[in-house]
Design a protein that fits this description.
InterPro entries: ARM-like, ARM-type_fold. By secondary structure, this protein is mainly α. It contains 12 helices and 2 strands; from the N terminus they run αββααααααααααα. It folds into 3 domains: about 45 residues, no CATH class; about 130 residues, no CATH class; about 90 residues, Leucine-rich Repeat Variant, CATH 1.25.10. Helix 5 runs parallel beside helix 7, helix 7 runs parallel beside helix 9 and helix 10 packs antiparallel against helix 11. The mean pLDDT is about 95.
Amino acid sequence: MESKKRITSAYSFAYSRMSVVQWAPTHTVRVTVDLVDTGDEWRMAFAPEPQGDVPDPDGLMAAWKDWLKKLWKLRSEGVLPGETGPCRAPIGCYGRFDHPELEPLEQRFIDGVPRNVDALVRVMREDRDARKRETAVMLLGYMTSREEFVRAVLPSVRDSDQGVRNEALRLLGAAQKDQKRVIIPLETVLEALWFPSATDRNKAGWALVRIVETEGAVHRQQILDKVGKVLLEMAGAQQEIDHQPARKVLALLSGQDFGDDVAAWRRWVEQAR
């Protein structure tokens, strides 16, 4: 907090955010500082914050909150070792249900979400509570049609809240994984790679990985022209969650793997462009 005060008092930024990530296996804490210069507000062309108050569809959001409390309790007690695990959501998982206290709770979402898609979309688009909008996105991971999911969630990529954008981009990438054709729009993903938060960029990075895995390097020039600079910056980041997707995209586009040699990646990008 003191560091942020020093930075923002010394310089003028259109956006300033600090986030902390803890890596349990290496007992490491990393702080990421995201800044947007004044004049680069185009990177934050988000939708206005909604002002509605939408009822909880069929109690699904309350049930999700109850499950999360139990999940975090089991994690804090050391019963569940990892962040994620198996679930039965057709689109993509959040958390896990592989514990006797959690497993019976998932059926509520499997049955309830497909019956309440329209109501959940209303929460996602209209509710002023960003955490409710974020929960609605995660619940929609239990939709049965990937194409319908993409159509429903795509506008939330430009939500005013970074948590909502994070979940929308994460699940759009999950929807694209292992598909025979591209079902998420490339241009939207490329725009999201310029968004201001690290969580925007690394989730957009993985969504781009899934697109390139599906269709190969057919849009290599467009990708490098639009986000080559961002991919190189991400490729040199210290945090694995940031550099992994960028290096994966570059490897898929180039047919080569320079690992953490950012200078080699930079030479390849300059030559390819």
